[in-house]
Amino acid sequence: MVARRRKRAAREAGEQLPSPPGYSAIPIKFSEKQQASHYLYVRAHRVREGTQSTWPQQRTLFVLNVPPYCTKESLSRLLSHCGSVQSVELQEKPDLAERRKEPASKFFHPKPIPGFQVAYVVFQKPSGLSAALALKGPFLVSTESHPEKTGVLKWISEYADSVLDPEALRAEVDQFMEAYDKKIAEEEAKAKEEEGVPDEEGWVKVTRRGRRSVLPRTEAASLRVLEREKRKRARKELINFYAWQHRETKMEHLAQLRKKFEEDKQRIELMRAQRKFRPY
């Protein structure tokens, strides 16, 4: 009897989900066919005293060991049983600040993070965080109603998404450039208004404006720039550093002297041939 009780206690202890200290383990499976479970390690997001963090500490769940096939949508769906999910952010490593939200685009997507990731899940209410910490699982990532594409199907989908519509892409780029130009114009107008105006402490911000004329894009100017760069490189090069360089320099100098000597001889012969006797 004692041996059976010990075996039962050991079995019950072995059934406890493994997790690092301070974390709770949530088992997940990719599909029903998968027998082994993958574990997400979760805890309430908290920082040291005096450290600033933009994540709301009473409503943010920090998740470790997020597999590559688990997307923001699937993670939000898995945790939606605990309460309304406000946002899900996947990152390569933990960070105390939220990333700046970029406008959603159909053509320009951020570079996917390779390998396992960490996640910050923000709930609408603190009760959602408490419920998430008490989850037992296992939960399915890919279901019939919400299938996740992997392998060849995922590659086919990524290839199909990579084929862009030129007209739609041009429209989105034009819209982005209009918003960018408007933003730059507003910043320039604001800087012009604040120029020479003292702040609350009486300091005046001095900015340097470029007064040098822009280099003209002409062929002569380009040639001058190239010639200047060539002279700089020539000054940096080591001249007559090796013996073969010294030998070649001497041979080139002798060849130039011989060439000049022959030219001088031809010029002297030409001058002699042009001599004429002029008595008067």
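Second entry:
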Amino acid sequence: MATVPLGFNIDAPRWDQSTFVGRLKHFLNITDPRTVLVPEEELDRAKALVEGCRARLVPPGSSQEQLLYAKKLYDSAFHPDSGEKMNLIGRMSFQVPGGMALTGCMLQFYRTVPAVVFWQWVNQSFNAIVNYTNRNAASPISLRQIGVAYVTATGTALATAVGLNLYTKRAPPLLARWVPFAAVAAANCVNIPMMRQQEIINGVTVTDGDNNELGHSRRAAAKGIAQVVVSRITMAAPGMTPHSLALVRTLPCCKPGRRDGSTRSTDRAAPTMDRWGSHARSLP
């Protein structure tokens, strides 16, 4: 068993964070979907081990690999600001399985208004939980503000999805396939700024390279939140857009025609197209 090196810092990044590859490895590590299956007791032990290591109280016989794995579990399940355990649905490690399932449902059930309303509501409820769970703990938000953000984002998504769904009833299948993505994009433009409105109002803490506080900046908050919105939309795009164009170009069922059931071959092939679409997903 390897021993812990002298002067080991458990909070030091394992990979060079000044490079893209280093940052990619870091976030792949802490968003590993397998950590969702780790029992609560093991997560608590990982937290105790990390906190003990920070206090220079490493249990005898602990290896560096054990400490790094404990840090991985800690980063995946506990809030970086408050240290509180995050609910499972809101953890970033749950984004791949949870988001993939939701996007599959939105792409599968898009033909009727009730189905669109239900799955857009479920998706926005999921997004609201994620945004609240990963909020900036230094900028608390009231229950009223959370409710307003949730209702506003859900209303935006439903209005966009239902409106476009009705508008594209007789349009080519390609346009109809883009409706879920348009609704998700519109909702993200509302949900995230509303959920983090305190940062925009009061600003975020700005520090120097040595982590010394310099003050608060609303401009930095606005820039950061805008980048989050763009990144969320960009992450959703790979799972919700390319397959639509590919299927429209390759499958006979996706050739332009009526969507009301008048083309028999289209009706037979549509379920296959939907099942394929349900497998593609990134973050919401």
